[in-house]
Every structure is written in C-alpha cells, then in structure tokens.
Amino acid sequence: MPKYRKKPVEIEAIQFTGSNWGEIETFVPVGKYNEDGTFNIVTLEGEHKCSIGDFVIQGVAGEFYPCKPEIFAATYEPADTTPVQPDTEEEEISEEDIAEIKQMMIGMKGTVQEISSHINSIGITLDKIGGNP
User: Fold this and answer.
1) CA angle, 74 as apex, 72 and 75 as ends, to 5°?
2) pLDDT in tens, 73-85
3) Residues 6+ apart with CB under 8 A from 16
C-alpha cells in the first residue's frame, strides 16, 4: 500500500480555554453556544463541537475545524515566524585549503569534478580563493 506524508504547511490555530471567548469569536464564526460551556463551529463536514482544551484550526482553504489537544500536539509544532536572515559571517578558510585548490587549478592536477568536489567539501566559493583558474 502506498504511504503518504503530510505536506508542511503553516496554519493558524487558537486553543479554547473556556475563558477566551473574545479571541475565539474574532477568529472563527461560532455556529452555536452550548449550555455546557462548549460551542459548535461549522466545518466542511457539518457542525462540530469544540470543548475546552480543543484547538480551533483554520485550514489552508480558510475552513475551520476543532482538533483535540493530543492530536494537535502530535501533528503541529510552532512555526518559526522570524524571517530567515542570510548568514553574513564568513567562515575561516585555511591557507592550506586555498593553496591546495590553487595548485589543483593551476596545474590541473585534478579533473573539474575533483576540484569542484574539493571546493564543495570545504564549503567555499571560487571568489573566496581568487577567482577562476
């Protein structure tokens, strides 16, 4: 039987605490309030009850649905909303590595693949060692 993996997508979700009604009402259209302190939301599959502790998730198509906390914890993790900053720190390249690459390039002691492989293995670019051969 074929296996599938869930695609990594970011969702918005709020955990219903029983005291955060304002936040819930701003996030999701509540279908019906229940006397037991729960509420119903309209999902793509019909109306579903959301209990204290459940998460209300907004899916990728804008749909809402409740999710039990243990399922939520097994399925989701906090998204890193901090934009990734490029690494601006230059790594130290040893003089020995630079000399070896220059010798390979000057004397063509290796094939292009060997030179490229060595350059990649130490994580540098040609501009760091003085340009093209």
Assistant:
1) 65
2) 998 888 876 655 5
3) 24, 39, 50, 51, 52, 53, 54, 55, 56
